[in-house]
Request: fold
Amino acid sequence: MRCPFCGNAETQVKDSRATEDNSAIRRRRACPDCGGRFTTFERIQLRELMVVKRSGRRTPFDRDKLARSVQVALRKRPVDAERIERMVSGIVRQLESLGENEIKSEQIGELVMEGLKNLDDVAYVRFASVYRNFREAKDFEEIIGELANDDSSENDT
Reply:
């Protein structure tokens, strides 16, 4: 593993342990040249996924990009990092279990919307506003109306 500080190709693993949900291995590393310390995560990848964008362009699936978009939606929201990680891991497992090597970006967006709806309403609306390309205030009203309807139907049961 290359050192992110000095670029040295050889770093030493100081500590390894499983993450809370056992979905990855967390490794603490140190660089013998500069003394820099950093953490890496090792995850299982069942298959190479390609994302088919709306334009038809294909790009390799990037778990980190998915996690960043979720983090942006949840910025300054009181949601535990472990719950966010579980949600992202769950989405990745769902995508891998579809059995397809190519996944439409819309499919990923819908899974993120579903996950955020269960985590935090504000993050759900934030993500929806970008994902569905809101242009007017009524677009926000509609999605908030959907949330309100979902909440009232859950209370009826």
The mean pLDDT is 86. Residues 148 and 154 are 10 Å apart (CA to CA).
